[in-house]
Amino acid sequence: MLAAIVPSAARWTIEQPLLTYQVPVELEAALQPGQLVAAPYGERLVEGIVWALLDDSEGPVLDDEDEPEGVRAFELRPIHSLLDPEPVLLPHQRALAEWIAEYYVTPLALVAWMMLSPGLVRRSQFVLRLSNDLEPGETTDQASLRLRALLGLLQEEGAIEEKRLTKLLGPTQAQKLIREIRENPFIVREPSLSGPKVKPRMKRVVTLIARGEQLLEWREEREAKVRQALQQPASSLAPAGVSPWSKTGIAAGEALPKLDANTVAAQRQLAALDLLQQSINRNNPWTPYTLCQATGLTAGQLRSMEKEGIVKIEKIAIRRDPLLGQVIPLSSPLQLTDEQQAALNRILAAAARGEEGEVPTPILLHGITGSGKTEIYLQALASLVARGKRGIVLVPEIALTTQAVQRVAARFPGRIAIMHSELSTGERHEEWQRIRSGAVDIVIGSRSALFAPVPDLGIIIIDEEHEAAYKQSSTKPTYHAREAALRLGEILHIPVVLGSATPSVESFYRAEQGVYELVSLKGRIGATLPPVEIVDLRNELRAGHTSIISRRLQEELRTVLERKQQAILFLNRRGAASFVLCRDCGYVALCNRCDIPLTYHATEQILLCHYCGLQMNMLHFCPSCHSAGIRYFGLGTEKVQETIQRLFPEARLLRWDRDTARNRHAHAELLERFARRDADILIGTQMIAKGLDLPGVTLVGVVSADIALNVPDYSASERAFTLLTQVAGRAGRGSEPGTVIIQTFNPQHFCIETASRHDYHEFYAAEREVRRRFAYPPFRQFAKFTYAHRKRSRCQHEALRLQAQITEWIRLLNMNDTDIVGPAPAFPERVKEKYRWQMLLRGPDLHRLLRVIDAPDWEIDIDPLSAM
Length: 868
Ligand SMILES: Nc1ncnc2c1ncn2[C@@H]1O[C@H](COP(=O)(O)OP(=O)(O)OP(=O)(O)O)[C@@H](O)[C@H]1O
Ligand SMILES: [Zn+2]
Prior knowledge:
CATH superfamily of the largest domain: P-loop containing nucleotide triphosphate hydrolases
Number of helices: 24
Number of strands: 32
Helix content: 25-40%
Bound molecules: adenosine-5'-triphosphate, zinc ion
Structural class: alpha/beta
Number of domains: 6
CATH topology of the largest domain: Rossmann fold
CATH architecture of the largest domain: 3-Layer(aba) Sandwich
Shape: globular
Strand order of the largest sheet: 13-14-12-15-16-11-17
Radius of gyration: 34 Å
């Protein structure tokens, strides 16, 4: 038997993704596709995934004229060992990996390893040990001192990792020694793999081991001791016959009987026993420390319980639970509205068609903000879970995962797994294992959760499908989770549900073309969409009102505060001032590693580059002309916070942006605080724009809509419209009606106009025509090529070289309607001290071309969401 294997070491080559190995007889019965094995690769041992099992006759042959046809003229190497009896990739995952590798022109091994838990990755290494043929006393006279020392070490330790030599001797000496080892018959140098990266998290815990009679006896003995001590008080005044546990009967001012140390110990041990018995099945076990803390038991007293065989102190593996410590109240299904019920029916009908062997058409669930899409997802999932299926739910960002995870966890307690990049390797690995073992029904997470090994997958739901976070853009493969999900739906014949209040132009166009089934929700649950008022900031200035918060917005904020409701203020830029300018000479403070103005952050009193994170001290004098005319201009969330606090000193503010929420716990905490109404006004960047469902919010203010507009990018209008509509959709979701105020210098801008009417269809129809006229996606395919280098001339040179190559291929392949825009410097041209040049390839279908282009040093984004 032979096996075709994808070796981890082939992650960097497109050619030859599969290598053929011999299957050793002892592995023949156990080996199956999808398993992780160790296999020789060059002189190393590497991990590999079994992709297919082949008959002996199906292996590769050499075209050698001297050999009879079909005979192999070389020996295939055998697989070394099986690393895990359970497959690490399910059949549908392998099929998806093949598609991603093909479509995004990425080595198959790279795609396959992206799908695995990082906890499975092992290092190739070499181990040295003494040869078995070595006779005692048979040393090598001609061996160097180094080698003899090593022989001694090996005799002591049996085997050592070759890497240790480098640590002990330094690289040069180690290299010399390794050369000697190779020629020495007494030392065997074997390739091997390091152990698994993730080890179980061990914790010392106290477990009750005594049972029945023994336990009863022990308890009674102690209880008797306590009773006795209380009945024979030191003070002879204690009345007889009074229950030892009651204080009544002891006259005021009288001291309680003073207990001796033994009795105290017995009392504490009894308390510990009670706690241990109460929590026999608790998944958060007692540790020696917590138990002693809770009962006053000393370490010695606990040890004596152990000696008496009552408890055992042992190390056990503890699950790394990403939800540990979160209390999530259960929720039950809501009575659906007619619209919701109709939508649910269509999803379930698609699932039923899939079960009959059809490929169900993916569903675009277009429901206005607050129309109850989440409830539909939950009920669709419940219905499929009841039929023995499982589901994947994708949410775009970690800020959002918090609320989404809570909603799903509340409905499927204990049956969900979470997958996103902010989990530790250990957490990810354990979640991955729970998923693979079938212990969970629903996987929820960011785009990579799509690659979880879910058995019996029955549905994929992508919430906020328009979000850019679903696209991986700078690392290979530059995949879009939506496209990959659609492919998975086809492979498994399961429904893919794409939900959004503002579908991407691409998706809505596909729905129009009949590629998706369109399901619409037109009404808000128990509420209406909030009216949107546009404030023309030019009029504010004309009226002499220069505050960044217009008079209308101030008025509405005052009303909200008076009524004890909540408001969200949105600004798509953090910091306090977006640039620092000298009024006298025009100097602008730029990052010296990037071509980007520095942003002033008032809290930390620094200037920060938002591209590379570089920090500089605040400026008081112009470094160029030394005048004191340095001024801080522009807006950021910090400035908004400061202004609001000045206007409304009594208001309780909360700022939610990347400066205040640096990790997922911070996101959860901010959300929690605002939901608990610990704050009146939430000020934030686009993190808060999406998906949040906070019924107390009645006012949403967009401080400046202009930042998102006027960006020279094919998708800029879509992004601006989506953002504004989504932010506006956060108001009036509860029982109180809401209001939205958008401040802008461009009140007549099409995006603002349509967003203010929540009119997706008008926006879409106009945007589609722009895209058609200028041949933008979805009417043309784009591929963006980026080259970065410290030298500008090198970028320019490489860009021209690639341009010539591509032009030639376009001519050779006769690809009409395909052309190159650029090359040109990217915007900004320099980031982290590297210049960047770009080129945009566009045409009806670029795949033939992408496969032949040879540009290993270029970053290639296939179907980029931004042409910039
Ligand atoms: N059938 C129902 N009966 C009562 N309340 C409901 C029902 N369906 C949903 N809701 C409530 O309506 C509110 C809005 O629902 P949800 O957050 O799911 O909307 P959405 O469509 O996902 O909105 P968005 O696109 O803005 O994220 C939630 O508080 C939800 O609990
Ligand atoms: Zn920078």
